[in-house]
Amino acid sequence: MKQEEERLTSGQVGSIVKMLGLTTDREFNCTECLQNVSEFAESQLAGKPVTEIIARVEQHLALCPECSEEYDALRKILQAGQ
Ligand SMILES: [Zn+2]
Fold first, then answer.
1. How do residues 8-17 score in pLDDT, each as one tens digit?
2. What is the Å distance from ligand 1's center to 5 Cα?
3. What is the mean pLDDT of the chain?
4. Average pLDDT over residues 65-72
5. Is the distance from CB of 25 to CB of 59 less than 8 angstroms?
6. d(CA 75, CA 82)
7. Which long-range contacts (CB under 8 A, 24 or more apart) does 35-40 make?
8. Which residues surround ligand 1, an ion (CB under 5 A)?
9. Contact 39, 55 (CB under 8 A)
10. Integer Cα distance of 51 and 34 in angstroms
11. What is the pLDDT of residues 29-54, one digit of tens each?
12. Which long-range contacts link 11-18 to residues 24+ away (Cβ below 8 Å)?
């Protein structure tokens, strides 16, 4: 029984990965990412130069599947509007 308890489920692995992602980028959380994700999406589509904030959004998106989903949805909306 003890061994069963120590085994990680895929859900637990997911939250550990997420936790690690959030701790490596403590200063830039999901709220900040989502505040800047539209700027990131627009600059990607327009091929604008990457600013510091854009680079941080990109870094956060690589670590955070939830924000990544938001970005995908936003990008689709922006592309449809072009
Ligand atoms: Zn996030």
1. 777 777 676 6
2. 29
3. 82
4. 96
5. yes
6. 11
7. 37/61, 37/67, 37/70, 37/71, 37/74, 38/74, 40/71
8. 30, 33, 64, 67
9. no
10. 16
11. 999 999 999 999 999 989 999 899 99
12. 18/63, 18/64, 18/65
Angle at 52 between CA 38 and CA 58, to 5 degrees: 50
pLDDT band (50, 70, 90) for residue 82: low
Query: Is the distance from CB of 67 to CB of 60 less than 8 angstroms?
Result: yes
Structure tokens at 76: 């689709």
Residue type, 80: A
- Please tell me the distance between residue 79's alpha carbon and the centre of ligand 1 in angstroms: 22
**Model confidence, pTM:** 0.64
What distance in angstroms lies between residue 61's CA and the mean position of ligand 1's atoms?
7
